[in-house]
Amino acid sequence: MSDSHDEGANGLIMPNLQAEGASSASRKARPSARPGTGAAGQELRSAARTLDLECEGLRALRAALNDGLGETFAAAVTAIAAAMGRVIVTGIGKSGLVGQKVAATLASTGTPAFFVHPTEASHGDLGMIKPEDVIIALSWSGESVELGTVVTYSRRFKVPLIAITSRAGSTLARQADVVLALPQAKEACPHGMAPTTSTTMQIAVGDCLAIALLERRGFTAQDFKVFHPGGSLGAQLKFVSDIMHTGDSLPLVPLGQTMAGAIVTMTEKSFGCLGVVDSKGRLVGMITDGDLRRHMGPDLLQARVEDIMTRKPKTLPPDTLASAALEQINSLRRGDASRLPGVTQMFVVEKGRPVGILHVHDLLRAGVA
User: Fold this and answer.
1) N or C end: fewer C-beta atoms under 10 angstroms in the chain?
2) Domain 240-365 falls in which CATH fold?
3) What are the φ and ψ backbone dihedral angles of 136, each rounded to 5 degrees?
4) Which pTM value belongs to this model?
5) In the chain, where are the structural domains located?
């Protein structure tokens, strides 16, 4: 019986290179190991178990909203909304890292907030906290001694204190004005020590507070844009009016125009389309390169634009988000096999009159896609 390994003179198992080479192609052609087998399978099972346990924590949190937590959650939202100052978020260890994320989410969604490290608070950063602020303190056990300085300060100067903890009877909870008592949950860590499920639940509660406050304040996409001017997110939050072409650049012709003149205008403006307007300047139709191809014939140049145009074309209002405009342009051909892939522009219309035109290339240059 042969094997792909031979024993060398020194007794070590040496690879049979010829056999290895002969079988390499067949190994490359073999499908990868099925999920659930071998080392990869063990890792996948571990990942699935982690997700299952964290989902169980979130389900317990959702159930708690209908069993006591909901009332205190509403009280926390009311306390934050009523504060004339800012939200001060604090915590130590992993809860502190969660707190930094919670503060960032609050700040970016219309609730002024920042994180104060409890240790630094003992060395001067307490000066950042004012009586008109509200404090959110995170501690899963509720017994983090590092929070003592901030808690004491809040009681001394009557700064509202909201505790996010899993122990309603903890030192932190007893001192707080509002307690968000989270349900106990099993950590995904097999030793039950590394914060995993617990931090997921804390993040979720922070997100719930941020979104509830966003909705309560009526925070809009336009407000969101103010805090996110950069990057792809900032680009998506631009409005069509910010990037559309306007004025003399618009490819417009009146009703009654012959196609001979219309094609000249279409070529000069270089958008691959024409808008047709009536005597009151209202957009009544649109002609694209595809329309020209469909009506190509000896009588095309003598035809009137109204004979060629697509009536009641899809348009955009100026206050459409750039991301929404891209989706609408991409959807022009969906469900309509007669549309050609070249339809990549839309007119921007206000009160029936064209005020701009937007090409998909404008969106790409703006960084929307």
Assistant:
1) N
2) CBS-domain (3.10.580)
3) -115, 115
4) 0.63
5) 44-218, 240-365
